[in-house]
Specification:
Length: 395
Amino acid sequence: MRELILVRYGEIGLKGENRPHFEHRLAANLRRALEDLPDARVERGYGRLFVDPACRTDEALARLRRVFGVVGLHPSVETPLETEAILDAALRLVRGERRPARFKVEARRSNKAFPLDSIELNRKVGAHLLEHLDGLSVDLRHPEVRLRLEIRERHAYLYVRDVPGPGGLPVGVASPALLLLSGGIDSPVAGWYTMKRGVPLSAVHFQSPPFTSPRALQKVQDLCDVLAAWGGPVRLHTVPFTRIQTAIRKHVPPELGITVMRRMMFRIAERLAARDGLAALVTGESLGQVASQTLESLAAINDVVRLPVLRPLIGLDKSEIIDRAQAIGTYAISIRPYEDCCTLFVPAHPATHPDRLQAEAAEAALAVQALVGEAVAGTEVEERRAPGDARLPSR
Ligand code: ATP
Ligand code: MG
């Protein structure tokens, strides 16, 4: 008998011929999550992955529940394909649960060579539990304890616990993208949702020293570390943006300042993405939140790039974004009070319906390509990783 964590995954099971590719990626990501637990092992079985955590089950669970692609985790007992061993394991597992309890046994037999079918197994295991444990009763509709039993090719697996994972797809099955990361509440959440669909992330942050403090950069670095704990290392690009901000303030009509500033950010981000082979930009924009987030405004900003721009928060209310930020561990960092470069330059009356032509006319006063080139040349890059031992709050 061994104790294992059985890993259940959903959508990736549906991918037909790509399935082995998805499974390999998920297995690799599970291994990465456990890499500093020296004896932990990940094994593949048909339609399931198994993790042998080498005793550190709780520690392993805390990490595995942050691996995208995982739908559920079940700490399980593995037994030989023998009825006696299965009955013993069932007793041991249910004995550990609270009593008195209403319970149900749910057996699945994918190995048809096993002599008992699932109905016979349910009955036999149920009867064994009733005989040996006081205070139990069977309840098929609303059980307090569900004992699940899988009869597979070489072993049987039994479990009562169901620890939810984040769902989604394993990071690495999609091409990488570049997140515009401000240090606010929204953009890290947008990055999380993008990783959730299998996309590895790089990030870009625009900073305007001395108007922005080094602490604002520290915030962004810390946010990258949290994202890295979910989806692997994040390459953070830090762009010097002071010259551009100053030029905009000097030459662009105040009501168009934000639109032009955003267009400059997008141009620079697209150049950085091309340099690293990144397939899309990602922002934390959500419709209607602020003046720069009307559809007209998004269109005027989007006009300067050809890469797709993903806006995963488009359908979320602010309160939903905040809930998510809290659950994934970015909120406490995002609300640290250091200004980012945009809040400092917000005009009293930004245009809510800027159009492309207005923006272009305003930009005629700027040396756009030279400013973009200079910012790209001055960009610094560092790789951010999850701190090995600083564990984050779980979902
Ligand atoms: P956030 O909470 O992500 O800052 P927000 O609601 O404050 O979003 P804006 O300030 O209008 O909205 O920014 C919209 C988006 O533009 C951000 O979500 C982010 O993707 C990008 N962005 C804004 N400022 C910066 C910056 N200094 N560096 C990188 N990206 C930025
Ligand atoms: Mg912001």
